[in-house]
Amino acid sequence: MSAFVERRTIDVIPADERTGRPRDLFSIWFAANIGPLTILTGGLPPVVYGLDFWWSVIALIAGLLLGGLFMALHSAQGPRLGIPQMIQSRGQFGVRGCLVVLVVVLVMYEGIYAANIVSGAQSVHAVFPSLPLTPLAVVFALVGLVVMVVGYRLIHLIGHIITAVSIASLAVVIVGLVVMGRIGADVFAIGVPTARGFLGTMAIGALWLLAFAPYVSDYSRYMPAHTAGLKSTFWWTYGGALLGGVVPMAIGVIVAISVKGDALTGLPAVLGQPLSTIVLFSFAAVIMHFNAMNLYGATLTVVTMVQTFRSDWLPTARGRAAIGALLVVLATAGAALMSQDFLNSFTNLIIMLQYVFIPWTAVNLIDFYLIRKGHYDVADLFRADGGRYGRYDIPALVAYAVGVLVEIPFMSTALYTGPIADLLSGADISWIVSLAITIPLYLALARRRMPNTRPAWETA
After folding, report:
1. Could you check whether the bond before residue 274 is cis, i.e. omega within 30 degrees of 0?
2. I need a labelling partner for 287 at 20 to 30 A (CA). Which of 127, 167, 257, 402 fits?
3. What does the DSSP 8-state code read for residue 412?
4. Helix (H, G, I), strand (E, B) or coil at 448
5. Is 455 helix (H, G, I), strand (E, B) or coil?
6. Where do the H-state alpha helices sit in 193-274?
7. What is the DSSP string of 251-319?
8. How far apart are CA 44 and CA 354, in angstroms?
9. Mean of the pLDDT values across residues 82-110?
10. 250 close to 42: Cβ distance less than 8 angstroms
11. Where does the pLDDT of residue 127 fall: very low under 50, low under 70, confident under 90, or very high at 90 and above?
12. pLDDT tens track for 318-350
């Protein structure tokens, strides 16, 4: 068993330890998306925006296609460099400048981990109402911790198993919804299409997959660069994530319209027995897998943050376990708060993450694919002074800050609606504006400073 436990954390994966095939990425990202949170997310458009079935699904697919594009491009970075995504991000923002993004990423991990704890507990509680939610939430949190401690190989193995289980589970749901006639014909006619609803829903779909961007390459970094090329890594990740996201989100739309509320808690009423029991138990397995992935990423993020100030510190499995345990305690406390108003808490989390991740992914991908073309001095990324990348990269930080600031007038949330969003009847196009500004701005700024930062093999 000790040989199966992952020894590494954020350090470079040597060539003789590289293993796996690009097609393994399909199962891990398919499995990560076939869960109750995906159904809950799919149910947001009709509940939050009042959209009908067809416009909800079209907008979600459009968002998933775009968000998955960015996500898969990040995944392709892993085999090339053999390091976690957040370490690679030092190449754009500097070794300390990257802390801005790390803090945001850590909040995301903890928020999604807490949301998974709540949804997992609710899934089992729906089958066994006598079981209290709090102990169930603790069980889900601890299982995720155990899987995370074992690490990379176990997470991939569970992904393969969950993929097979999830396909069967989805077949059960489709039988329940279509063949057994559990939904009324009027479900497809309820709702009103609006520009605000379409753009808001598209943003939800895009962010759902974009939220994987900060850690998607963590699961491709062990793969050999000569067998896991950019194209194969991209397409296997893209395919698994898209297929894993589209079907459960469409189911979420149907259920949310049918029960006129939370798609997750309304699923048993729509499916009936015994189908709902089978599906909810499969959800429990998916949540444990997804939780382990989020905790794994959160732990690597904390290690990266500490290593920023202690460059010689690289913990192994025991240190990863201690950090993970602390993060589980914090996430469980957050889950207790989220359970008071779960749907609104989760919706607000999804919307707020959109504003901070869009400019980050723009900077990261432009730098990797267009500026440096995949060439980084990995050793410098671990130096206290950042080596050729420095402690702070002003062009990247400026582009990122501008990318966030330009979103403000276009934001449309329950807490704040910008003046331009108000003129657009609440339609949120902030993420589109951010991409349109951040990409050319960083491209111009980065190219001006490239002569001083270009790796030696590019100038030789």
Report:
1. yes
2. 257
3. B
4. helix
5. coil
6. 195-210, 230-259, 267-271
7. HHHHHHHHHTS-TTTTHHHHH-TTHHHHHHHHHHHHHHHHHHHHHHHHHHHHHHHHHTT-TT----HHH
8. 15
9. 89
10. yes
11. confident
12. 888 889 899 988 888 877 776 666 656 666 766
- Letter for the amino acid at 354? Q
Q: Which letter, b or e, does each residue of 182-204 get, where b requires 16 or more Cβ atoms within 10 Å of its Cβ? A: bbeeebeeebeebebbbbbbbbb
In angstroms, rounded to a whole number, what is the distance separating the alpha carbons of residues 142 and 333?
13
CA angle (328, 334, 336) in 5-degree steps: 105
Six-digit token pair at 114?
A: 């807490």
CB atoms within 10 A of CB 457: 8
pTM metric for this prediction:
0.85
- The percent of residues above 90 in pLDDT, for the chain, comes to 25
Identity at 408, one-letter amino acid code: I
CA 314 to chain centre: 25
Q: Has residue 352 got a pLDDT over 60?
A: yes
Query: From its phi and psi, is residue 455 left (phi > 0), alpha (psi between -120 and 50) or beta?
Result: beta
Given this model, what pLDDT does residue 458 score?
36
Coil vs helix vs strand at 184: coil
3-state secondary structure of 350: helix
Tell me what pLDDT residue 459 has. Answer: 32
226-252 as b/e: b if 16+ CB within 10 A: eebebebbbbbbbbbbbbbbbbbbbbb
